[in-house]
C-alpha cells in the first residue's frame, strides 16, 4: 500500500477488510475471552460527529486499551467503514517498527488511525469525524503503576479544536487496564536519558524482560477491561464562560483553566467508575471459564502466541495461506526471533534478508518507508476522501 506523496492527493490507508478479518481471525475473541471487555453507557455516544472521545490511558503498557476500545466501538457499529471512529496516535508509534504491534507494516493507519498533529485534529473534527483522542498523551501511557488512575495534565490543543468545531468531549473511564502490566514503574532521570534515543519512556523492570525476549514487549495480563462512557461536556460553552473568544495562544491561561476543568470532571468520573468496577481487575473465575471454552485455541489466546497469530494473519492477507503445518513452518521460520533470548537483532536481520511480504530485501529506501508506514501523514497535504454522510446516517 503506497504512502502519501509530496503533492496533494486523496489518501485513505484504512483497510476495512483487513481490520474485519483481524477481528474474525482472533482479535475479537481476545476482546471477549481474554480481556472480557465491555462498554457501559454506549447509548451516550452521538451517532454523528464532530465529537471527541476522551479516554484515560493505562500506564507503562503497550496500548492494548486503545486497541480494545477501537475494536469494541467498530463492532458496535456493525463493522461499517463509514462509521469507523478515527483514533489519533502519537507519530512515534508508526515511525519505530517495534512500536507497531509485532512490527506489522503501517498497522495503526490500516486500522483507521490518523497521525496526531495540531492541524490533523482540527481537520478531522472540521469534516465531522468521531475522533478518539487521549488527552494525557505520552505522559498518560508513561506513568508508572504507582500513578494508576491518576490523570496527567491535559493539553489545551483539543480544547481549542473542540470549541472551534462545536464538538462535545465525551469522557470515557477506562477501568482495570492499569492492571495489564501492574509491575512497572518509570523514573524521570531514566526517561530523560532514553528520550535522547527516541524512546518516550522506559518502564522498569518490565523493559529488561522485553529486551531479553521480544514477545514480552507485547505482553498483557488478562485484566477485564471496562469502558464507562460519561456525559458529553460542552467545551465551547465552557470557553464562553471563561470569556475566551480568540481561541489561540494569547488566551493560554484561560484555555488551561478549561482543560483543567475537563480533567477534574473526567477524574471524578474515573474515580467513581473504579469504585464500581475496579475491585477485582482480573476476575480469575470468568477467565478460567472463557479459556476452557476455547481450550483448542488456547495458544492464540495467550500472549505467548500473539506474535505468531498476528503476523501469520498479516502474511495470509498478502500471500497465499500455508495449507499444511510443514509449509507454515518453512514460511514463518523467522518468527522464532520473538522467542529467543536477545532476539531483537535477529528479527531486524530477518527483515533485511527476506523478500516481501516477509521482509524488505530488494526494496528501495522510499519503498520500504512507505510499506512500513514510517512517515508523517499530514491531512492538509494528503486529505481523506470526502465523507459519505448519506451512508453513515
Explain what you see:
It is a single chain. With 393 residues, the chain is of the alpha/beta class. It has one domain (16-299): Glycerol-3-phosphate (1)-acyltransferase (3-Layer(aba) Sandwich), CATH 3.40.1130. Helix content is 42%, strand content 7%. It has 18 helices and 7 strands. It has a 7-stranded mixed β-sheet, sandwiched between helices. It starts with 15 loop residues before the first helix and ends with a helix.
Topology:
Blueprint: H1 16-34, E1 38-40, E2 51-55, H2 64-76, E3 86-89, H3 92-95, H4 107-110, E4 114-115, H5 118-126, E5 130-132, H6 138-142, H7 157-164, E6 169-175, H8 188-195, H9 206-212, E7 226-229, H10 235-241, H11 252-277, H12 284-293, H13 298-301, H14 306-316, H15 325-331, H16 344-353, H17 365-372, H18 389-392
Parallel strand pairs: 1-7, 2-5, 2-6, 3-4, 3-5
Antiparallel strand pairs: 6-7
Helix pairs in contact: 1-14, 5-7, 7-10
Short description:
The protein has helices spanning 16-34, 64-76, 92-95, 107-110, 118-126, 138-142, 157-164, 188-195, 206-212, 235-241, 252-277, 284-293, 298-301, 306-316, 325-331, 344-353, 365-372, 389-392; strands at 38-40, 51-55, 86-89, 114-115, 130-132, 169-175, 226-229. By secondary structure, it is an alpha/beta fold.
Amino acid at each position: 500500500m503506497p504512502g502519501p506523496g509530496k503533492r496533494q492527493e486523496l489518501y485513505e490507508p484504512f483497510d476495512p477488510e483487513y481490520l474485519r478479518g483481524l477481528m474474525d481471525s482472533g482479535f475479537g475473541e481476545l476482546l471477549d475471552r481474554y480481556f472480557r471487555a465491555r462498554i457501559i453507557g454506549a447509548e451516550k455516544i452521538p451517532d454523528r460527529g464532530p465529537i471527541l472521545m476522551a479516554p484515560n490511558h493505562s500506564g507503562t503498557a503497550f496500548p492494548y486499551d486503545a486497541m480494545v476500545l477501537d475494536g469494541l466501538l467498530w463492532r458496535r457499529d456493525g463493522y461499517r467503514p463509514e462509521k469507523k471512529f478515527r483514533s489519533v496516535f502519537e507519530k512515534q508509534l508508526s515511525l519505530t517498527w517495534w512500536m507497531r504491534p509485532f512490527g506489522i507494516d503501517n498497522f495503526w493507519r490500516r486500522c483507521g488511525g490518523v497521525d496526531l498533529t495540531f492541524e490533523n485534529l482540527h481537520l478531522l473534527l472540521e469534516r465531522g469525524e468521531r475522533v478518539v483522542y487521549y488527552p494525557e498523551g505520552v505522559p498518560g501511557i508513561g506513568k508508572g503503576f504507582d500513578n494508576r488512575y491518576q490523570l496527567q495534565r491535559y493539553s489545551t490543543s483539543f480544547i481549542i479544536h473542540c470549541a472551534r468545531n462545536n464538538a462535545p468531549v465525551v469522557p470515557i473511564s477506562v477501568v482495570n487496564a492499569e492492571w495489564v502490566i501492574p509491575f512497572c514503574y518509570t523514573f524521570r532521570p531514566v526517561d530523560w536519558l532514553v528520550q535522547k534515543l527516541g524512546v518516550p519512556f522506559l518502564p522498569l523492570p518490565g523493559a529488561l524482560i522485553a529486551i531479553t525476549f521480544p514477545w514480552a514487549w507485547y505482553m498483557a495480563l488478562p485484566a477485564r477491561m471496562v469502558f464507562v462512557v460519561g456525559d458529553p461536556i460542552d467545551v465551547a460553552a465552557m470557553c464562553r464562560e471563561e470569556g475566551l473568544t480568540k481561541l489561540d495562544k494569547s488566551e493560554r491561561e484561560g484555555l488551561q483553566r478549561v482543560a483543567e476543568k475537563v480533567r477534574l470532571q473526567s477524574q471524578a468520573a474515573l474515580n467513581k467508575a473504579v469504585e464500581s468496577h475496579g475491585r477485582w481487575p482480573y476476575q480469575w473465575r470468568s477467565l478460567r471459564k472463557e479459556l476452557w471454552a476455547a481450550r483448542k485455541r488456547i495458544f492464540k489466546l495467550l500472549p505467548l502466541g500473539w506474535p505468531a497469530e498476528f503476523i501469520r494473519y498479516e502474511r495470509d492477507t498478502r500471500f497465499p495461506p500455508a495449507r499444511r503445518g510443514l509449509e507454515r513452518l518453512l514460511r514463518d521460520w523467522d518468527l522464532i526471533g520473538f522467542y529467543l533470548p536477545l532476539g531483537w537483532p535477529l528479527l531486524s536481520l530477518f527483515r533485511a534478508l527476506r523478500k516481501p511480504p516477509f521482509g524488505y530485501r530488494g526494496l528501495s529506501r522510499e519503498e520500504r518507508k512507505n510499506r512500513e508506514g514510517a512517515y508523517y501523514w499530514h491531512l492538509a497535504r494528503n486529505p481523506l476522501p470526502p465523507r459519505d454522510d448519506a451512508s453513515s446516517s
